[in-house]
Structures are given as C-alpha cells and as structure tokens.
Specification:
The structure is a single chain. With 396 residues, the protein is an alpha/beta fold. The strands form 4 sheets. Strands 4-3-5-7-9-15 form a 6-stranded parallel beta sheet, covered by helices on one side. A hairpin with a 2-residue loop joins strand 1 and strand 2. The protein is elongated, with a radius of gyration of 32 Å.
Length: 396
C-alpha cells in the first residue's frame, strides 16, 4: 500500500551530500530528483553488463549483448541469427556467428534447459516437426506395422520435448521435393523426421539446407543424413547366439539378396563370422537370392536340411507349413525382424525406441542450429533384443 511518509534520497556530488525530498501518495507520484551534473564513471565503476568482455576472461560468460555490441546489431538479431531463424541474411548470420566464436560465446545450459521446460509447458505453442514419407497417399504407411511403431514412439517423444508431428508426403499428386521443401519452409517448419522409405533409394532436389533432418532406417541411400536404426550385424548375432543356446546346430539363413545388399551384406558377414567357429559338417549354405518363392525355398530346404530356418519374411513359415514341415518338431523357425507377429521367435528391433531416438536427434540439431546435409553423419544404433516364441523352443 502506498504511504505519504517523506522519503529522503542521498547521493554524492563533488564530495558533498545533498538531500532531495519528495512526497508520494495518491495524487503525488514518486519522483527522484538527481543532480544536474555528475562526474563521468571510470571503466571500473561501470556495471559489468555495460563493459566489454575481458579477452580470455574465465570469470564471466559472454552474452548476446556482448556479441550485439561487437557486431553493431541488435540483441534480437543476434538471438535470431544464433538460433538459425528465417529472415536473417546468410551474410549477417555468418558475420554474427564468427564474432560469437571469436568472443568465445557458448550457450548457457541452464537457460537452454529453462527454455525447453517453457516450451513443454505451453501446449498451444508446440513447434511442428514434419513426418515426411514417400507414399502416394497420406497415411499409406499405416499398413506397415514397423513404421506404425516407429511413428508411435516418435509422436510420444515429440510431445515430451515440446513438439508435434505433422505428416507430409513427397509423392502425393502434384508434389515434388522442391515444392514440398518450399511448403515446409513457408510454414516455419525447421525439423524433419524422415520415415522409412517405401522403396530404398535417394531423394534428389529437396532443399535440405533449410532443415534439421534425421531418418528412421537404412532405406535412404543418399543424401547421407543423420539416421537411427538397429545394427543388422548385431541383429544376426543375437539371433544366432540365442538359437545355438537353445540347442540348434544347423542354422539356415534365408533372406533376399536385395535386402542383404542394401544392408551392406551385414547378415551374410555375420554368418561368415559365426560359421568359422563351426565344424565343417554343421555349416549350412545360406539361401540369399531374389528368386523368392515357395518352390525355390523348398528346393533349398530339402537340399541342405537345416534344423532351424532364420529369415526376415514371415511368409517363409507359411511355406513350411503348407509343405507339411512340422514347426517346430521337424524344423524350427525364427525371424530376424519381428513385426506384430505373435507366436514367432525372433529379434525385436524396438521400433518405438527408433522413432523416439530420431526425434531426439532432430531436436538436438535444432537446439544447436545445425541444418542441412551434415559434414559428419551421426548414426545412432538401438540395441535389439531376442524374443522367445513357440516356433523355436529349442532342441532336447
């Protein structure tokens, strides 16, 4: 509550003490009367915020105010340039970034954490990340259970970090990579989570330089963007070791040549490593072929007589059953990649965790203002796990 008591203010001028008295109350707003002149302050008397940072000082953090003074621009321009926002010319951004580097500027982790907390607490202000697909229709990827799991994990992690996902497709009617890039740019979208491609290949003509991007699989061949996936060499070894532990001796690998090639022959390479430790009579020649049909499979099976088949296609189990092969009595079966396939043993790739890690990777790039095709690609590997199932219970 305001009072009408007199308040006295003292200040120094030329070594003498002066008094200025004023009253404040309902009809008397407070006024502070200063001397007409005052001696100039020395550099040591200035507040720390008004002084230029000492070169190489370890006692004080360089701020955006320091950068603004050195660059001759406003603090807002510095903040926008360091965040990589649109509306700042490339020349200005590079000039400010060079000065920031020269002064030794580093973002304050406490401030970054606070801003992250504020962003998460403002539901209406969630920033949008693009969930970019290569399907002909919006939602066409929902027929793929693995991609659905990736999206589920990505959506949950985006929400935790203060983002939301919005779907865009490169292949809807009339769409081109360049046009989609312009749409995202004009909507203020800065980050892209690239879903597994419908077909393995490259994306050309997209303006990657405006976006922080990471993909959820090995399906993108170029450009070399950040990606999150499982290590397929390790996937094979996890499957092999678990089958050996369960007593299987003749493990037959059955995969398509196209997929093994796409994965840089990681499955075949892991098989060679494991086979080196086996006696000669226990090694099984793998079926690695694009002649992918039941007849070709059964020819291979009857020739090599494995006691467990390891594949990446669930339909192989159907071929075995239709041919009268009793699973698991006659032969076991396991998958290198489990989808929503109940009752089958195999390797769980943890697809929701792949989606979550991809969003975290994009968010990290945004927080450090990293856009475009990276000079050094980050490849994050999610640990896979074995899942028991009745198709490979083990041999007694």
């Amino acid at each position: 509550m305001a009072t009408s008591d007199p308040r006295t203010f003292r200040h120094r001028e030329s070594g003498r003490r002066h008094h200025r008295i004023f009253r404040h109350g309902k009809n008397h707003p407070p006024r502070l009367i200063l001397p007409a002149t005052a001696p100039p302050m020395s550099a040591s008397d200035k507040p720390a915020s008004d002084r230029a940072p000492a070169s190489g000082s370890a006692n004080r953090r360089v701020t955006t105010i320091d950068i603004a003074r050195a660059a001759g621009v406003s603090k807002m321009t510095v903040s926008r340039a360091l965040r990589g926002e649109r509306g700042i010319s490339q020349a200005t951004r590079q000039h400010i970034q060079a000065i920031a580097e020269k002064l030794g500027y580093r973002p304050d982790p406490a401030v970054s954490e606070l801003m992250g907390h504020l962003r998460k607490s403002r539901t209406a202000g969630f920033e949008t990340l693009a969930w970019m697909t290569t399907y002909d229709t919006i939602g066409g990827w929902r027929d793929n259970p693995g991609t659905c799991d990736i999206f589920r994990g990505a959506t949950a992690q985006a929400h935790r970090l203060g983002y939301r996902l919005e779907e865009f497709s490169l292949r809807t009617s009339g769409m081109t990579p360049k046009r989609l890039g312009n749409i995202l740019y004009n909507q203020g979208i800065r980050g892209i989570v690239l879903a597994p491609l419908l077909e393995h290949g490259s994306i050309e003509g997209f303006p990657w330089q405006h976006f922080a991007t990471a993909c959820c699989s090995h399906s993108l061949l170029s450009p070399l963007l950040h990606r999150v996936s499982v290590d397929h060499f390790e996937v094979f070894r996890v499957a092999w070791q678990n089958l050996v532990t369960r007593g299987y001796e003749r493990i037959g690998l059955c995969v398509s040549e196209t997929d093994d090639t796409r994965l840089a022959h990681r499955w075949q390479g892991a098989l060679l490593v494991e086979n080196r430790a086996l006696p000669a009579n226990r090694g099984v020649e793998p079926m690695i072929s694009d002649d992918w049909n039941a007849a070709a499979f059964l020819r291979w099976y009857r020739l090599h007589k494995p006691d467990v088949v390891l594949s990446h296609f669930p339909e192989v189990l159907d071929w075995m059953k239709h041919a009268g092969i009793r699973v698991p009595r006659d032969c076991g079966f396991a998958l290198l990649r489990l989808w929503h396939t109940k009752g089958i043993a195999g390797v769980d790739h943890r697809f929701p965790d792949i989606g979550a890690a991809t969003v975290s990777l994009v968010a990290g790039e945004l927080n450090t203002n990293q856009y475009g095709i990276p000079t050094v690609r980050k490849s994050v590997s999610i640990e896979c796990v074995w899942q028991d199932g009745p198709t490979a219970p083990g041999r007694s």
